[in-house]
Design a protein that fits this description.
By secondary structure, this protein is α+β, with helices and mostly antiparallel strands. The chain contains 8 helices and 17 strands. The strands form 6 sheets. A 5-stranded mixed beta sheet has the order 12-13-17-14-15, with no helix packed on it. Strands 7-8-9 form a 3-stranded antiparallel beta sheet, with no helix packed on it. Strands 10-11-16 form a 3-stranded antiparallel beta sheet.
Length: about 300
């Protein structure tokens, strides 16, 4: 989070003409990035933390709780480890170790005993709550992370696993309202794997909206303008979005003739071909017709 939002803070300062503060923020983000890469990489995924005694949490060296979802999602979301190839490795291990048909679990293996250095997380039964349950709140982080490395098929697969619109047919297993997100779904170690708990008590809907609108469909507000950067399932032919941004209405049509997962080949704005894929609003223009060709 520090790396991601320090970079965004730097953009704000640069936009305001405060170059010195922007440079300070960039340096701080770069230092944190390197600290994570040096002390946070476990060989196949990112560590969750170090405890008060300096012992690793979420490491292959641990007997239980070897890999956690949060760092793999949010670090890649913040573009950490992408250029080094570590992001792909971490997300591949999420699929290998944490994936279930009902969503991605918090960690594995589940804690089967109480750990004084970890406290509450190890006090729950295996497969429930923080002890290897499926928290809907952080599943979108991993979906967003997958879009950052261009895997639209996997991003959409993760989205579908917890989205109410796609899981009505397992209502007898889920057992909460079929139109709302739940905080937690029982993980594979639980007696009732797939059963949901604590409906409404979650920030999942907001994160899912960000995921679908800004990263899968890829219509994302930036300081310079409106960015169009789709990362969609390869079988999709395209889509149309109507988006109001800074008082201007955008009609955006995305076409995917080559059935790729990510990549913008060309973009026209009001009939004029533009460089790049960011729509910079002009003075006095109230409406834009945008056509994007993926490839």
């Amino acid at each position: 989070m520090f790396v991601k939002y320090a970079a965004e803070y730097a953009k704000i300062q640069q936009t305001r003409g405060n170059g010195h503060e922007a440079e300070r923020a960039h340096h701080a983000a770069a230092d944190m990035y390197q600290a994570v890469m040096d002390a946070g990489w476990d060989g196949g995924w990112f560590l969750r933390a170090y405890d008060a005694h300096g012992e690793k949490v979420g490491s292959h060296e641990c007997r239980e709780g070897k890999i956690y979802i949060e760092p793999q999602g949010f670090l890649v979301l913040a573009d950490i480890g992408i250029k080094e190839g570590r992001a792909k490795q971490a997300l591949d291990n999420v699929k290998k170790h944490l994936d279930t048909e009902y969503g991605i679990m918090l960690q594995q293996p589940a804690y089967c005993g109480y750990y004084l250095n970890l406290g509450e997380i190890s006090s729950y039964p295996p497969g429930y709550k923080e002890n290897a349950g499926i928290f809907c709140h952080n599943n979108p982080w991993v979906s967003i992370a997958e879009t950052r490395i261009g895997r639209g098929n996997r991003a959409f697969e993760i989205y579908r696993r917890t989205c109410p619109a796609y899981i009505e047919d397992i209502s007898d297993i889920h057992r909460t309202e079929p139109y709302v997100y739940s905080q937690m779904i029982a993980g594979k170690d639980a007696p009732k794997h797939g059963e949901a708990k604590n409906s409404w008590l979650t920030g999942t809907a907001a994160w899912t909206f960000v995921n679908v609108s800004q990263y899968i469909l890829g219509i994302r507000p930036e300081f310079e303008g409106l960015l169009v950067e789709p990362c969609i399932p390869s079988q999709m032919d395209g889509f149309t979005v109507h988006r109001r941004y800074r008082g201007v209405l955008y009609h955006i049509t995305v076409k995917n003739p080559g059935h790729v997962e990510k990549g913008v080949k060309s973009m026209t704005v009001n009939g004029v071909k533009t460089e790049g894929n960011c729509i910079v609003p002009g003075q006095g223009v109230a409406e834009y017709q945008v056509e994007v060709i993926m490839g």
